[in-house]
């Protein structure tokens, strides 16, 4: 026991956590708050406009699922190479991550710009929601490239200890979005009233501003890693193979989970109009929680991945153990606060009557399930950045397609269950997966370094743990 305490120190741990995780969590929270503000500012255009905006956000979420595999892979390599002080590996990993992120963004942006009707018909059979969503998607598709560029640059900056730059860029971006929403949606300062199109234009401008501010601030502090473009693309076949080998399970996980999530949204999109509107508002609030937590989780896991890469597996294990339970406590606190404020939040976002009642029920179900859901998320982020990209992937995909989706489809279309039962089916697997994820965590089999120094240290750590287990 003394040995473990000697390895782990709370002071440096909490200091590092505050320096990395809090700015990232605040950045994600700001971005999601911008989406919430969009919803509030289109409220005068009607409840159906709010619902259509939520459906468009679900398409953006599908894009997020498709590129998040490369974000996870990028974090794995960048954090471990940074821990091992390998700049070439770090720059090479950043270049590959950015290339694949842009490929996904171009695909989804092209679909949104040229095929918005097909997208909206997929997500809902309500003609009114379709017509409004088409106007928004046709413009907002141009924002996707800027969003992923800022995402890629932010990962590099966070990993190397410059998390405040993306945070400042997000503040400027969200402020730009809010101001231009006010100008363009309702028509102020002499501008025409573009309505929902104005919200899309503001999102594009905010994305451009985000990228611009990151570049300016990085240049101001002479952050050379971001501007060594030739070195970003100094790839070898072996490096690409290694990168894709680690990324492939994460890509499969995010893509298949994203498709499963799309099936869930399509199912909910066949509910009555007031349920669709309630779900759309709920998704924005869910995004607020996920935005805060995902930033906290991703940044926190970097602290673990850095230790794995620099050859300190025991410190990585001890950090991860504390992060998992700390994150669960943080998310529970956030949920209690949001549920206490449910009335002003839901009414401000245009829900009333039946829509409001449905929104409250959705929040209640989600807030109970989310403690398990976010615990699973945190553990999976930890496994991925430590080199184990398979266990969490297999577990999540298996449960989603063998349990969640069948239960939901049966409830919706065979048994014609109430909407809240259908919604509850989305989370039936979370407690079971949480138990299995905990068992895997304490086995320590998720520590799989990609650096030479990490691999050498792992052998000694596993022998040490085996000896501790025999002694017990």
Description of the structure:
- It is a single chain.
- With 472 residues, the chain is mainly alpha-helical.
- 84% of the residues lie in helices and 0% in strands.
- Residues 1-6 have low confidence and may be disordered.
- The chain is built from 19 helices and no strands.
- Helix 3 (47-83) packs antiparallel against helix 11 and helix 13 (313-340) packs antiparallel against helix 15 (353-385).
- The two termini are 12 Å apart.
The radius of gyration over CA amounts to 22 Å
- Sheet-strand content, in percent, reads under 5%
- In DSSP terms (H or I, runs of 4 or more residues), the helix count works out at 19
The ordered H/E elements are HHHHHHHHHHHHHHHHHHH
Amino- and carboxy-terminal Cα gap: 12 Å
* Low-confidence residue ranges: 1-6
Largest sheet: none
Q: Give the mean pLDDT.
A: 82
Overall geometry: globular
Fraction of residues in helix? over 70%
Structural class: mainly alpha
Compose a concise summary of this entry.
This protein is mainly alpha-helical and 472 residues long. It is built from 19 helices and no strands.
What's the structural blueprint in terms of helices and strands?
Blueprint: H1 2-7, H2 10-41, H3 47-83, H4 87-114, H5 116-123, H6 127-140, H7 143-159, H8 164-186, H9 196-220, H10 229-232, H11 237-268, H12 273-309, H13 313-340, H14 342-348, H15 353-385, H16 391-414, H17 419-424, H18 430-443, H19 452-471
Helix pairs in contact: 2-8, 2-12, 3-4, 3-6, 3-7, 3-11, 3-12, 4-6, 4-7, 5-6, 6-9, 7-9, 8-9, 11-16, 12-13, 12-15, 13-15, 14-15, 15-18
């Amino acid at each position: 026991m003394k040995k473990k305490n000697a390895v782990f120190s709370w002071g440096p741990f909490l200091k590092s956590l505050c320096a990395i995780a809090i700015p990232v969590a605040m950045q994600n929270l700001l971005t999601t708050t911008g989406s919430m503000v969009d919803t509030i500012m289109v409220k005068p255009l009607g409840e159906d406009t709010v619902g259509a905006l939520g459906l468009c956000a679900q398409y953006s979420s599908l894009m997020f699922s498709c590129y998040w595999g490369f974000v996870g892979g990028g974090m794995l390599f960048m954090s471990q190479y940074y821990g091992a002080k390998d700049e070439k590996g770090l720059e090479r990993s950043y270049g590959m991550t950015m290339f694949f992120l842009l490929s996904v963004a171009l695909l989804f942006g092209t679909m949104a710009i040229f095929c918005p009707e097909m997208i909206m018909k997929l997500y809902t059979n309500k003609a009114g929601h379709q017509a409004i969503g088409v106007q928004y998607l046709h413009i907002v598709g141009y924002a996707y490239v800027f969003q992923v560029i800022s995402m890629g640059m932010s990962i590099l900056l966070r990993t190397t200890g410059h998390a405040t730059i993306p945070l400042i860029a997000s503040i400027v971006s969200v402020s730009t979005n809010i101001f231009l929403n006010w100008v363009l949606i309702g028509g102020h300062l002499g501008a025409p009233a573009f309505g929902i199109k104005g919200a899309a234009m503001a999102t594009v401008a905010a994305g451009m501003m985000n990228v611009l501010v990151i570049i300016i601030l990085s240049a101001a502090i002479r952050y050379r890693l971001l501007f060594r473009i030739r070195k970003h693309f100094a790839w070898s076949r072996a490096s690409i193979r290694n990168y894709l080998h680690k990324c492939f399970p994460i890509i499969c996980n995010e893509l298949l989970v994203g498709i499963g999530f799309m099936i869930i949204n399509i199912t909910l999109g066949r509910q009555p109009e007031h349920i669709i509107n309630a779900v759309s508002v709920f998704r924005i609030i869910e995004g607020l929680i996920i935005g805060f937590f995902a930033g906290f989780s991703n940044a926190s896991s970097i602290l673990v991945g850095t230790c794995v890469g620099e050859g300190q597996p025991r410190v990585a294990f001890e950090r991860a153990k504390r992060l998992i339970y700390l994150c669960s406590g943080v998310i529970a606190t956030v949920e209690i606060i949001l549920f206490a404020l449910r009335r002003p939040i839901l009414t401000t976002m245009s829900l009333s009557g039946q829509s409001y009642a449905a929104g409250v029920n959705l929040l209640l179900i989600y807030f109970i399930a989310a403690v398990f859901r976010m615990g699973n998320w945190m553990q999976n982020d930890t496994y991925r950045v430590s080199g184990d990209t398979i266990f969490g992937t297999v577990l999540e995909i298996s449960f989603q397609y063998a349990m969640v989706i069948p239960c939901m489809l049966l409830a919706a279309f065979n048994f014609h269950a109430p909407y809240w039962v259908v919604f509850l089916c989305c989370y039936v697997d979370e407690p079971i997966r949480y138990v299995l994820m905990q068992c895997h965590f304490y086995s320590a089999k998720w520590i799989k370094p990609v650096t030479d120094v990490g691999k050498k240290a792992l052998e000694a750590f596993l022998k040490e743990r085996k000896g501790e287990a025999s002694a017990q």
